C-alpha cells in the first residue's frame, strides 16, 4: 500500500489530457471545400460545439468528484489502482464518443441513435467504474484517510452510486428515441451535478 | 472547501497540453503535392507560424496570470472550481481558433473576417471567465490565502477585469476590417502583457 | 544526484499522455462513406477496441510497476535518468504499434503477422529497458531509498527481469502464427500482472 | 517573485507532452494503399524512426538540463518566466520539425536540405533560449537557490551557452550538404550529451 499522491497526479494528468483532446473534435473547415461562407460552415458544426461543451463539463465534474473521493483516501492498494485504471479507461474514451456523437447527431436515422447509445453507454460504464471504486474504498476502512468517518462513507455508497447509474440508464433510453434529446439530457445532468455541488458548497 | 494545490495541478496540465497542441496546427507539406520548392511552401505557411507564436504567448501569459491569481487563493470552493473549469474550457478552444485563423488569414474576403471574429470572441470569452474567477475570489475573502490583503484584492477587480475585456473587444472591432491586423493586435496585446509583467517585476 | 520526485512527475506525465493518446486510434467512421449502418461499421472496428483495452491495461501496469520501482529509489543519477528515458521511449511508441496492430489484425496474411511482431517487439524492448533500469538501481545500493533492503532488491533482479522478458518472447513466437492470438496473449499477460498484483496486495 | 515549483511543473508538462507527441509522426501505412508488404512499407519509413529516436533523446536531454538549471534556482521572476516560455516555444516546435525532416530526409534534392535547415534552426533557437535563460539567472544571484555558489554559476555561462550553440551551428552547415548526415550529427550530439552527463555522474 502507498500514499495516493502519485495516483492522483497520474489521474489528474489523464483527465487533463482527455479534456483537452476534446478540442481535436472541433474541425477547421478546409478552405477550398466550402459550400457557401465560412460562417455558415461553422454554424453547421454546432453539434460539435454542443458536444464539446457537454463532454468538457462531464469530464470536469468527473475530475471534481475524483478529487472529492481521493480526499477520503489515505492509502491505495493494488485493487484501488486497478479500479482507478478502469475508470480512467472509460474517461479516455469520451473524446472518441463525443466525436462520434457530433458526427451523427443530426443524421436523424438509426445511425444517430447508435451514436447516442454509444455515448451514453460509455458514460454508464464510467459511472459503474466510479461506483465500483467508491464502494471498494468505502468497504475497506483501512484505506480511508485519518479523520474520515467510515460509517458515513459506507452509508453514502448507495446514494453516490445509484444516482449516476440511474441517470445514465435514463439517457440510454432517451438515446433510443432521439440523439439530440440525449445530448440535452447529458448536458442537463452535467448542470445538475454542477449546481448540486455548488449548493452543497453554500 | 479544499486546498488549491490539485486545482492548480489540473489547470497546469490543461494549459500545458493546450499550449503544446498548438504544434498540431503546423502542418508538414505532403511530399508529392508541392507546387515549387519546400522552402516556398513553408514560407507560404507563415500565417500558421504567426498564429502559433501569438497563441503560444497568449496561453503562456494566461498561465502566468493563473499562477498569480492562485497565489492569492488559500481555499477553493465548488464555485471556484466551476469558474476555473469554464476558464479552461475557453483556453482549450484556442488551438482550434488558432488553426481556423491561420487557415483563413490571407483569404481576404468575409471568411478571413469570420475566422478573426471567432478567434477574438474566444479570447474575449476567456477574458470574461478570468474576470469572473477573479471577481468571485476577491469578493469572498474567506477564500484568500493568509497574509493576502482582501481590500487590495477587491480594489484591483476593475483593473484586472476591465483592461483585458476592453482590449479584446477592440480586437473584435479590428476583426471586422482586417484579419491580419487583428492577429497583429493580439500579438501586440500579448507583448504588452509580457512587458507590463516584466516592468512590474523590476 | 538528485531526488527522484521530478523524474517521477515527468514519467507520470509521459505515461499519462501515452495512455490517453490511445484514444486517437479509435476512429469515427466518416458519415458519407458508410457501407451499411453505423452500428455494423463500429462492430467492424472491434480490433481497435480490443487493442485499445489491451494497450491501456499494459501501460497502466507499466505505470503501477514504475511507481513500485521508484518507491525503492532514494536518489537518481544521470544513468538512471537515461535508462528511464529509454524506457519511456518504448512506452511512447505503444500508441503507434497499437494502431498498427488494430489496422492489420484481421488481414490474415503476412501483414497481420508483421504488425503483431512489431507490437510484441516494442513490448519486449520495453521489458528489456525496465529490466535494465531495475538491474542498474539494484546494483547501486547508494541509489536506494532509506529503509530499503539492498540484498532483497538484488535478489529480485532475475525474477523481475526474466518473467516479463520470457512472456514477451513467447508473444513474438505466437505472432509468427496468428496476430489475433498474439493480441489475446498480450491481454492475458496484462490480466496476469493485474491479478498477480492484486494477490500480492491481499 | 515566487518559488519555481509551479514553473517546473508546467515545464515538465510541456516537455512530457512534446516528447510524447513525437509518436504522432509515426504513421501507420493505410491497409489498401500498400505497394508490396507491410514489412517493406514499414522498413521504408526508417527516416521517421531515426528522427523519432533522435528527437526523443534531444527533448529528454533538454528535460535533464532544464531540471539541472532549475535546481540552481530559488526564485523565479517574470523575466525568468518569459525566457522559460520562449524556450518551451522552441521545444514544442520540435515534433513539427521532426515530422518535416522525416518526410523529406531521403528526397535528395534541395527540399531535403530545407527540411534539415529548419530542423537545425529550431534546435539552434532552442539552444539560444536555453543560454539566455541560464545567463539571466546566473547574472541575478538573488534568483539562485540557497547554497548555490554565484561565482561558479557565473563562470559556467560561456561553457553552458557556447558548446550547444556551436554544435547546432555546425549542424546548420552540415544541413547545407546532406540531410541524412545532418540527422546523424544531431544524433551524435544527443549521444555526446548523454555520455558527458553519465561521465560527470561517475
List keywords for this structure.
homotetramer, 202 residues, mainly alpha, 9 helices, 0% strand, elongated
How is this structure best described in words?
Helix content of chain A is 77%, strand content 0%. Chain A is an all-alpha fold and 202 residues long. In chain A, 49% of the residues are buried. In chain A, α1 runs parallel beside α4 (78-92) and α8 packs antiparallel against α9. Chain A starts with a helix and ends with a helix. The first copy, chain A, is built from 9 helices and no strands. Chain A has helices spanning 5-21, 38-44, 46-72, 78-92, 94-104, 110-139, 150-155, 157-175, 179-201. Chain A is elongated, with a radius of gyration of 19 Å. The mean pLDDT of chain A is 89.
Poorly predicted sequence stretches spanning 5 or more consecutive residues of chain A: none
Radius of gyration of chain A, CA atoms, in whole angstroms = 19 Å
Q: What string, H for helix and E for strand, traces the elements of chain A in order?
A: HHHHHHHHH
Mean pLDDT of chain A: 89
Sheet with the most strands of chain A? none
Q: Note the overall shape of chain A.
A: elongated
Strand content of chain A: under 5%
Number of helices of chain A: 9
Helix residue percentage of chain A: over 70%
**Helical/strand content category of chain A:** mainly alpha
Terminal-residue CA separation of chain A: 36 Å
Beta-strand segment tally of chain A: 0
The biggest chain-chain interface is: A-B, 36 and 33 residues
- Quaternary structure: homotetramer
Amino acid at each position: 500500500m502507498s500514499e495516493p499522491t502519485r495516483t492522483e497526479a497520474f489521474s489528474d494528468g489523464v483527465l487533463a489530457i482527455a479534456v483537452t483532446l476534446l478540442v481535436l473534435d472541433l474541425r477547421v473547415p478546409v478552405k477550398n471545400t466550402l459550400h457557401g461562407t465560412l460562417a455558415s460552415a461553422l454554424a453547421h458544426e454546432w453539434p460539435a460545439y454542443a458536444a464539446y461543451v457537454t463532454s468538457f463539463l462531464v469530464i470536469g465534474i468527473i475530475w471534481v468528484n475524483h478529487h472529492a473521493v481521493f480526499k477520503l483516501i489515505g492509502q491505495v492498494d493494488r485493487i484501488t489502482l486497478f479500479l482507478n485504471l478502469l475508470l480512467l479507461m472509460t474517461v479516455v474514451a469520451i473524446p472518441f464518443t463525443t466525436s462520434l456523437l457530433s458526427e451523427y447527431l443530426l443524421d436523424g436515422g438509426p445511425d444517430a441513435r447508435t451514436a447516442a447509445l454509444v455515448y451514453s453507454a460509455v458514460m454508464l460504464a464510467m459511472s459503474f467504474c466510479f461506483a465500483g471504486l467508491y464502494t471498494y474504498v468505502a468497504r475497506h476502512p483501512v484505506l480511508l484517510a485519518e479523520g474520515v468517518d467510515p460509517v458515513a462513507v459506507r452509508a453514502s455508497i448507495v446514494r453516490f452510486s445509484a444516482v449516476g447509474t440511474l441517470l445514465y440508464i435514463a439517457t440510454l433510453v432517451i438515446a433510443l428515441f432521439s440523439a439530440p434529446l440525449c445530448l440535452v439530457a447529458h448536458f442537463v445532468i452535467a448542470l445538475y451535478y454542477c449546481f448540486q455541488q455548488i449548493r452543497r458548497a453554500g
